[in-house]
UniProtKB/TrEMBL annotation:
Residues 1-18 form the signal peptide. Pfam families: adh_short. This is Putative corticosteroid 11-beta-dehydrogenase. Keywords: Oxidoreductase, Signal. One of its GO terms (molecular function) is oxidoreductase activity. InterPro entries: NAD(P)-bd_dom_sf, Sc_DH/Rdtase_CS, SDR_fam. It comes from the Eukaryota.
């Protein structure tokens, strides 16, 4: 969804009413007001960031500090492990496959300890806790990064209950159980807990309902835990990246999983969908992933590292381009009915494009 779609919707509504000459000035005033609000909010955020980082903030020493990161096989977790290791932290890298290629590469780094950690299995969480507690020595567990997550796409009716349950068990319950288990060590070190959420926590588009539900739950978990733990000196943060290209959102893998999962859905549930519906969805997914995902994943990794090492971390770190931030603000500001119309219009535009270029 983009600003062009929003403006096109306004134009269509104005033309339909036959009152373009009245709506254009109104749209101009609305744009000026919205732009002013965005600029004021942006200025306040930048001023607060400057005060926090330049005047009262500082980068903490990594000596004697250990960090646990979940979901380190690939993506954010793998790259953050490497980043923190170069900064002198001892990193416990929790991997779904501790004998896999990504895990073995991390194991070759001197101050990285790879742990077998499937966050949906309490016995593996318990084993990781005992292993870390035994090996800390004079170090303290300074931070836990709850990064493990999943992504499956497709309309709700296209996804099996098993797939939806797995998404919640990994992304939400896994984060809850890891946080609960390691909280005593974080209270002892007065450290911090970092959750990886997403801008998708703030709005839900067709085809990514379960993902948005999980990320909204993670953001709520971070917000609530921050208020519960502040009296104990534990700081809780969340990272909300925009779209960045990782192994998690590889288009071919997502489509392969969606197609395979369709076989587990009752045919009665799928009978109302046509082959055309699947084609339009796949085109929209391909456009969303290939046209909007950023390759600059280092922006996310640097922000995650900053949240661990700065003395006064933010409650929420939003990571994305200026365009991404503006789109999110628009999505949060517009009436729900307008957003519904925009998503419906987007579907129609994709159908129109397919009919032209078929």
């Amino acid at each position: 969804m983009c600003m062009c779609t929003t403006l096109l919707l306004f134009a269509l509504l104005a033309a339909a009413s036959g009152a373009v000459r009245y709506y254009v000035p109104a749209l101009s005033l609305l744009a000026e007001a919205f732009g002013t609000i965005v600029l004021v909010r942006w200025g306040c955020q930048k001023s607060a960031a400057f005060i926090r980082r330049r005047l009262i903030g500082r980068i903490l020493d990594s000596a004697g500090k250990a960090v646990l990161i979940t979901g380190c096989d690939t993506g954010f977790g793998n790259l953050l492990t490497r980043k923190l290791a170069t900064k002198g932290y001892h990193v416990y890298a929790g991997c779904l496959f501790s004998n896999g290629g990504g895990a073995q590469e991390l194991a070759s780094i001197s101050n990285v300890t790879v742990l077998q950690l499937n966050v949906t299995k309490q016995d593996e969480i318990d084993a990781a806790y005992e292993a870390i507690k035994r090996s800390l020595g004079h170090n303290v567990l300074w931070a836990v990064v709850s990064n493990a997550g999943t992504l499956n796409v497709g309309f709700i009716e296209w996804q099996s209950t098993k797939t939806i349950r797995t998404d919640f068990e990994v992304s939400v319950l896994g984060a809850v159980n890891v946080s609960k288990k390691f909280m005593p060590l974080l209270k002892k070190s007065r450290g911090r807990l970092l959750f990886v959420s997403s801008i998708a926590a703030h709005f839900t588009g067709p085809g990514s309902v379960v993902y948005s539900m999980c990320k909204h739950a993670i953001s709520s978990l971070a917000e609530g835990l921050r208020r519960e733990c502040q009296r104990y000196g534990v700081q809780v943060c969340s990272i909300e990246p925009a779209g960045y290209r990782t192994a998690l959102n590889d288009p071919s893998v997502l489509l392969e999983r969606m197609t395979a999962d369709l076989k587990n859905v009752p045919q009665e549930a799928l009978s109302s969908f046509s082959a055309h519906d699947y084609s339009v969805f796949m085109v929209s997914l391909d456009w969303a992933l290939n046209m909007t995902l950023s390759e600059k994943i280092d922006h996310v990794i640097n922000t995650m590292a900053l949240s661990i090492e700065e003395s006064h971390p933010r409650a929420v770190y939003s990571v994305g381009s200026v365009k991404d931030q503006i789109v999110v603000k628009i999505m949060q500001t517009l009436p729900t009915e307008w957003l519904d119309a925009m998503f419906a219009l987007q579907w129609k535009l994709i159908e129109l494009r397919m009919s032209i270029y078929k």
